[in-house]
Design brief:
This protein is α+β, with helices and mostly antiparallel strands. It has seven helices and four strands, in the order H-H-H-H-E-H-H-E-E-H-E. It has helices at residues 2-6, 17-25, 32-66, 78-91, 105-111, 113-129, 155-172, and strands spanning 95-102, 136-140, 145-151, 182-190. It is elongated and about 85 Å long.
Length: 194
């Protein structure tokens, strides 16, 4: 610290712990208040550095989490869906994939984009309620498209889930600004390899 004060033209000084320990040990001939003050300063600097590192770690955790979440629907986004899909393919277990496209989003957006965002949120909520706890629902791309990954589900089971989602959305949207539904873009089923 004294070195930094003496050499004001240098903006950065790197301290090594062993040098701090040596300089503190060498300070035995100094009075106890000077030593105590030096240790307080060193502890303050160390605590501040640790605090900053922890803050950066928390910020990185939040940023990483947010990179997999769709900001409008609150559901996982397309990147998260692609990662989940890769895991399902690698598991070599059967699964079904539902691609669902919402209808009438343009009507909501014609009011304003906030109404369109609310419609997407409502659609995501209704679709989520129709799935099992182990199923995965994500917003696909940027519109009113959703993808559901259904582990251990047959084509008949996937069809049943898709019809249940369609019916639930039609019913729930009766209370919205515009009634809406979803079109099933496709249903794919991956069977176990033999």
């Amino acid at each position: 610290i004294m070195d930094v004060k003496r050499n004001r033209d240098r903006t950065i000084k790197i301290f090594k712990a062993r040098n701090l320990i040596r300089s503190t040990a060498a300070a035995a001939d100094q009075d106890i208040e000077t030593i105590r003050h030096s240790w307080d300063v060193v502890m303050h600097i160390a605590n501040q550095a640790i605090h900053k590192v922890l803050q950066m770690g928390k910020s990185l955790d939040v940023a990483q989490k947010n990179s997999y979440i769709d900001s409008i629907s609150g559901l996982p986004n397309m990147l998260a869906a692609m990662i989940k899909l890769d895991k399902e393919i690698a598991s070599n277990q059967p699964f079904a994939l539902l691609l669902m496209d919402g209808d009438n989003l343009r009507l909501f957006n014609s009011i304003n984009y906030a109404a369109g965002d609310e419609a997407i949120q409502n659609m995501g909520r209704v679709l989520s309620e129709q799935l099992r706890p182990g199923d995965f629902l994500a917003r696909w791309r940027a519109g009113d498209e959703f993808v559901a990954i259904l582990p251990n589900t047959s084509s008949e089971g996937a069809r049943s889930v898709g019809e249940r989602c369609c019916a639930a959305l039609r019913e729930a949207s009766k209370a919205w600004k515009f009634p809406t539904s979803i079109s099933r873009s496709g249903t794919g089923v991956r069977r176990r390899r033999r």
